[in-house]
Design a protein that fits this description.
- This protein is of the alpha+beta class.
- It folds into 2 domains: 237 residues, no CATH class; 105 residues, Lipopolysaccharide (LPS) transport protein A like domain (lipopolysaccharide transport protein A fold, Sandwich), CATH 2.60.450.10.
- It is 60% helix and 17% strand.
- It contains 11 helices and 7 strands.
- A 7-stranded antiparallel β-sheet has the order 1-2-3-4-5-6-7, with helices on one face.
- Strand 1 and strand 2 form a beta hairpin.
- The chain starts with a helix and ends with a helix.
Length: 381
């Protein structure tokens, strides 16, 4: 029991230290990146650093598997260096049994990340976008609720807010549209109602609607002018709209299932959000696989020559697994493979390969290490 607690504490320690190192480094990179923006000259260094801190959580999240394998290598290298594995074997205790506690610890950390840390990440991202909107009013924003979809875009004379009840052609056509235009002082100036709005070549093509100036009159719509076709210039395009509503990292894991229903009801594709949901749920299992990769080739090799090769192969395998996970996620988002396969195949593959390495019987990688060590010894002689 004491050994399990001891190993779990070390895993948590290494994970937290490596996470903080990554967080600090990425915060500095985010700060430098924000400094390059035009509006950065108008705000203080403290606020710039605050923006960088808010931006970092969403950047570091995809790197959790990399942090996990570095944690694994740090853990196994240190317990091997301190001869703790030899002591465990001498006491007649199974190595795999001893690794059960660290594996459960990594899995628990994965659960904490997706169910506790993830909501905080989305809050940080919303605060980041909100702060940017206050500083740079020309930025666009996107949201969806029971009243339909909402778009906000800035322009030279002020801002424009667009509400549409439903969407067709995955964002190209908006139905039952209401547009509010505001001046530089955020005072409403114009309202437009249209049955249909089609975006094309940085223009909104509005059909069958009414337009009127907003003032202090009780019923300004009485002076509304009808139109069959009306064009409005816009900085938005179809890609921006799809990306605005298609970025699942903006939504908490707890809200994602209901958000999927809302965007489907609105007329958008929810494939990207479904892929993200299952990829997040699969994250603890993928972390376990990455942790096992680090241990599979480093639990039994204590000589320096073997240890160096084992670490190198572990790093290559870890990066390959990370790239495989990203590749299947992209393929799933594009509809090339089923989203369940894209989300769950990488963790299953990585775990099975790792277990195969932990129980080697003339295993391929074990053979490579043995042959390499013998070749090195022969060359040295």
């Amino acid at each position: 029991m004491k050994l399990n607690i001891y190993f779990s504490r070390r895993v948590i320690y290494y994970f937290c230290v490596i996470f903080l190192i990554f967080y600090g480094f990425l915060t500095i990179l985010s700060w430098v990146d924000i400094l390059r923006l035009e509006f950065s000259k108008s705000i203080s260094s403290v606020n710039l650093f605050y923006l960088a801190l808010l931006k970092t959580p969403i950047i570091i999240h995809p790197l959790i598997p990399i942090i996990t394998i570095i944690t694994s290598l740090s853990f196994f290298i240190n317990i091997s260096r301190d001869s703790e594995l030899i002591i465990i074997r001498s006491a007649g205790r199974s190595i795999l049994r001893s690794m059960f506690a660290p594996i459960i610890t990594i899995f628990t950390l994965g659960l904490i990340i997706i169910f506790i840390v993830n909501p905080f990440n989305t809050i940080a991202l919303k605060l980041y976008n909100s702060e940017l909107s206050k500083i740079n009013k020309s930025l666009s924003s996107y949201s969806i609720n029971n009243e339909g979809i909402w778009l906000r875009e800035g322009h030279i004379d002020g801002q424009r807010v667009i509400n549409a009840k439903t969407v067709r052609n995955n964002g190209k056509e908006l139905k039952q549209v209401t547009i509010f235009e505001f001046n530089k002082f955020s005072i409403p100036t114009t309202r437009i109602n249209a049955q249909l709005a089609v975006i094309d070549n940085k223009q909104w093509n509005l059909k069958d609607g009414k337009i009127w100036k907003v003032n202090r009159d009780d019923r300004p719509e009485d002076r509304a002018k009808s139109f069959k076709n009306l064009q409005l210039n816009t900085e938005l395009n179809l890609e921006k709209i799809r990306l605005g509503f298609g970025e699942p990292s903006k939504i908490s894991i707890w809200e994602l299932k209901n958000y999927i229903k809302r965007i489907e009801h609105a007329g958008f594709s929810s494939l990207k959000h479904r892929v993200f949901l299952h990829t997040e749920i699969a994250l603890p299992f993928f972390m376990v696989g990455m942790f096992l990769i680090g241990g599979a080739l480093n639990m039994g090799h204590t000589r320096v020559s073997k240890k160096g090769l084992a670490i190198l192969i572990s790093i290559i395998m870890g990066i390959s697994a990370f790239l495989l996970n990203n590749l299947t996620e992209i393929l799933s988002q594009n509809g090339a493979i089923p989203f369940l396969l894209g989300a769950w195949a990488p963790p299953v593959i990585v775990i099975f390969i790792s277990l195969g390495l932990i129980f080697p019987e003339n295993n391929f990688f074990t053979t490579i290490i043995t042959l390499s060590s013998e070749s090195s010894a022969t060359f040295a002689n």
